RNA sequence: GGACGGGUAGCUCAGGCGGAAGAGCACCGGACUUUUAAUCCGGGGGCCGCGGGUUCAAGUCCCGCCCCGUCUACCA
């Protein structure tokens, strides 16, 4: 026997073992295997039998199980293996007398990582471990590569992201994060559907990127020979549906923004946007609170939870503070009584907020909020009534045209929602777009485009409407106590290598 | 984009003072019929991220580049 150990040699050695299975007529990549149950079910059934009929339990419970070999302890004429399926782990016992000498000999061709199917009796070993005492077994899939280390698991963060399957194999608790994420999304869908909202799908390829201030990804359609943009938000299409007569719609899917990557931003991320006719932002704030309270307490299982060392309480009612009042409270400055950029800049700089030349009045207010207010918003807090300059799709506040009826929700210092009474005055909307066009011409690449199709729709008439957007990934971060958005995205974007 | 930290065996990590590349797990061979991070004996395995430079000698020092992380900047 030659000796092995470089990766190449390990693979070659495993291929040899795989071929030996094939030579014996035991196809190493099986087509199907009928399990009598999952491992978790088999364990539960056995434990119940132990309680109800201990004598029968000692005889064992027949089972046919399958899983990936994750540990192996050889002992001459007996061998123990641990196999794992999605539900649980179980120990297998192979004895030479029980499976036959020839068959026992084939165990040397099994490696960690292989999938095996086995049938026999489930009962306890002398040491009390629930174990499948194997009578017959077969290879289901031969693995050609060694698994990450059994004790420390896989910790290299780059490999965990690039080869998430290895992360899941080595760190099965990671599965729970993604199960919770899915559960959370299902709860949101259930909540909205049960209240009469219709889930719809609008285009991801947009001729004009709109609905948010962000740089888009550009792509090209060959047949029409035209550039298209991956959507930065579904907002404008959803509002067109309200124009068309739908009264409660939502969309929960991916958006794309061609911007920086950090612990709170991934270029593709998931957003839930909902629109409700005949509603305004105050009513929608009530609904947001009720929906997120319902969803989060279900997923987390409690009103109180910890996020990255912060203690957060979801206890209602959630705090609601006008944006300018929050700035007065936390930043100790007043920006409400000025609309002048230079004056606002002076005031902001007086408390150490850095103001860049390209920031207008609205951006200055936003910057003060982000740096001086947001970090304090640990328990769920709504900030509302934002300056019109940074809210081009929101309706002006009914008694103050300098503000918009807009709110954002913050939890654990993360912005999770953005919502407003939707601007449905087509003339005002055109002016707002024109303001954005000016900004764009002045070099602001994130400024919005004028969208004539959307204006046409508003001219047809959109009823009073309130709309909400939720950052699903950030909500998942909160529900799973994840410090990085990449921990709640199965395959986060990394640089190509 | 900037600062800091990291990249050494398939995995987890030592070595960082320039002087023959290490450990555990995994792997290969052997012993063992109740182990469970099994144990015991023996063995193999390295482009030390990549490319230059300094030096008699570089994993280690210097320069450049690539990738990852955190913070920051930009940005919802």
Structural summary, described in words:
The chain contains 16 helices and 19 strands. With 497 residues, it is α+β, with helices and mostly antiparallel strands. The chain has two domains: 2-146, OB fold (Dihydrolipoamide Acetyltransferase, E2P) (Beta Barrel); 173-318 and 379-488, Bira Bifunctional Protein, Domain 2 (BirA Bifunctional Protein, domain 2, 2-Layer Sandwich), CATH 3.30.930.10. The strands form four sheets. Strands 6, 10, 11, 14, 15, 16, 17, 18 and 19 form a nine-stranded mixed sheet that branches. Strands 1-2-3-5-4 form a five-stranded mixed β-barrel. It has a three-stranded antiparallel sheet with strand order 7-9-8, with no helix packed on it. A hairpin with a 2-residue loop joins strand 1 (61-75) and strand 2. Helix 8 crosses helix 16, helix 12 (341-350) packs parallel to helix 13 (361-373) and helix 14 packs antiparallel against helix 15 (452-460). The chain starts with 6 loop residues before the first helix and ends in a 17-residue tail after the last helix. The mean pLDDT is 94. The structure holds one RNA strand of 76 nucleotides.
Supply database-style keywords.
single chain, 497 residues, alpha+beta, OB fold (Dihydrolipoamide Acetyltransferase, E2P), BirA Bifunctional Protein, domain 2, nine-stranded mixed beta sheet, five-stranded mixed beta barrel, 19 strands, 36% helix, 26% strand, elongated, RNA-binding
- Annotated CATH homologous superfamily of the largest domain: Bira Bifunctional Protein, Domain 2
- CATH architecture assignment name of the largest domain: 2-Layer Sandwich
Shape: elongated
Oligomer: single chain
Q: Which class of secondary structure composition applies to the elements?
A: alpha+beta
How many alpha or pi helices? 16
Count of the domains:
2
Tell me roughly what share of residues is in helical segments: 25-40%
